[in-house]
Amino acid sequence: MHCEIFPDRSHVGIPTVMEVRWMRQNPDGPGMTVGLRFLI
């Protein structure tokens, strides 16, 4: 998964690649909670 990290409320994102490790239904409503891991 391609993601961008915005440190310190910066308007410039740092591109990074992450791996989805787990997913589960959100108990508070629609959507999913996802666990990610950085790939270096």
Briefly summarize what is shown.
This protein has no helices and three strands. The chain has 40 residues and is mostly beta strands. A hairpin with a 6-residue loop joins strand 2 and strand 3 (32-39).
Structure in words:
0% of the residues lie in helices and 60% in strands. It is mainly β and 40 residues long. It has strands at 2-5, 14-25, 32-39. It has one domain (2-39). It has no helices and three strands. A hairpin with a 6-residue loop joins strand 2 and strand 3 (32-39). The model has no long low-confidence stretch (mean pLDDT 90). A three-stranded antiparallel beta sheet has the order 1-2-3, with no helix packed on it.
